[in-house]
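Reading is simple: each integer encodes one residue's backbone shape. The lines below illustrate:
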Amino acid sequence: MSSYDTGQDLVTQAELTSSESDIDAACRRELEILLEVECLTAEVTVKHALNQIELEGKRRALDALTRVPAWEKDSLLSLLKSIDRDQLEMTNRLRLQIGGPRVEVG
């Protein structure tokens, strides 16, 4: 989330200098950053993690987004459900490899 933090810092710094053009530029940059993070969040949510490393990446993304107070709760919930889905899929793949029963979603 360092890009988002940088965007917030730009706005704060611009507001301190009281330059209208600096404030406008910083607000535009902050919006660009938020839109980029929003798109990346959507991509991560729909992607199926194929291994524990990818699943951990999704968890780290969720952790980072929960630190953004204004982030949409529905987006966070979708990402959390995606993580749960991926964990279940990996568990089932492992169970199939060892001949165990498949776990169903309840």
Helices lie at 2-17, 20-46, 52-66, 73-98. Residues 8 and 21 are 16 Å apart (CA to CA). The mean pLDDT is 85. The radius of gyration is 19 Å.
